[in-house]
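## Example record

The block below lists the input lines for one assembly entry, exactly as stored, with component labels intact.
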Amino acid sequence: MRIGELAERAGTTTRTLRYYESRGLLPARRGSNGYRTYDEDDLKLLRQIRTLQDFGFELEETRPFVECLRAGHPQGDACPASLAVYRRKLGELDALIDELRSVREQVGGQLARAERAMGELASEAAVPGGPEPVCELEGRTG
Amino acid sequence: MRIGELAERAGTTTRTLRYYESRGLLPARRGSNGYRTYDEDDLKLLRQIRTLQDFGFELEETRPFVECLRAGHPQGDACPASLAVYRRKLGELDALIDELRSVREQVGGQLARAERAMGELASEAAVPGGPEPVCELEGRTG
DNA sequence: CTAAGCGTTGCCGCCGACGTCAAGGCAAGG
DNA sequence: CCTTGCCTTGACGTCGGCGGCAACGCTTAG
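Predicted structure tokens for the full assembly:
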């Protein structure tokens, strides 16, 4: 199998495969004409890389999985180094999710406050004596 | 106030301030010697930008807040354009958090499966007759 | 023979928010 | 005068994961 076919079967591009090779992740044999040659095991390696990439793993983080497969294990995560990457990633994900939730709450609070402030201003301008609460989600005085 | 003092009071660097100026976010008056000159209102603008940046807003997303302040409003989010940015950001945050939670679950599942597989292999090798469950978090047989 | 369609290497471009020089000007203290 | 420390502009570097182009070689079909 040549680079174009492998790329297509893995749903990626030849540029990506050459990039992986330049990083030492997916070395290729060469045919007599200089063309890269791949087999089904390489496809398996590549799919492992792509799956982890889709999860948001950096390329370097996929290396233990690839080496694990090349060591003959049927699964890329059948090695301690791969499990360590999983665990570290879980920690990072938890931390990131917590942080994003915190930001989400703060932004949500700012939005609510700003909407209240604008509502009060509008009401004071319209009815200086008695401001009525307005549902901002509707956007009109229905 | 010159650029160094403003940077320090806002907890950032002069490079950052010049970058903001190059983006048209924080224009500066110039003294007779060519030095940039800032006042307290500029500090307020800058703090608004920094707060949003800390929330993960892109620079361009802070522009409505800055323009709102420069239009004379006491708060950068006292304008509809700012509220629109808040709302869009909330949507992005929700989507991102959901996605990360999904990834977290999948990675967690992979880790659990891989740990089970390794435990089974170890047990089979050691005690072919009766595999005992081992706590992977402890790491030893104590 | 020729053209199409693969392959090869190499290098620059991109995105965002700056960091890091380089080379020089200006101000203030001893 | 000299040094120190601030300021100026301009330009290149960073990080990750490729995209895209140039300029060339191989192969195969018509």
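The helical segments of chain B are 3-10, 14-22, 40-54, 59-70, 80-126. Chain B has five helices and two strands.
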